[in-house]
Design goal:
This protein has 83 residues and is mostly helical. The protein has three helices and no strands.
């Protein structure tokens, strides 16, 4: 019973701390100019993100493919005859 009351007490304390912190934060207002600027930057940010992801994916696939080609079944199948 004491453990349950202690856990309940901790939950109440952390909940009150969370509420106090959210009330202490400043409320920021966004001007229409900031909104338009942020909105106009979205296509560039999305394009940059996609370009970076494509490059990372290509690098990863190149690395994995080269490692896979060195493993047992592939090097037996595709091994060039050295004569």
């Amino acid at each position: 019973m004491k453990k349950l009351l202690f856990i309940l007490f901790l939950v109440v304390v952390f909940s009150l701390q969370y509420v106090a912190e959210t009330m202490a934060e400043e409320k920021k207002t966004i001007t229409p100019q900031e909104f338009v600027t942020t909105l106009s930057e979205v296509p560039n940010k999305v394009g940059n993100f996609l370009t970076n992801e494509v490059e990372k994916t290509k690098a990863y696939q190149t690395k994995v493919w080269s490692e896979t080609m060195k493993t047992w079944p592939w090097n037996k199948i595709f091994k060039k005859d050295e004569e």
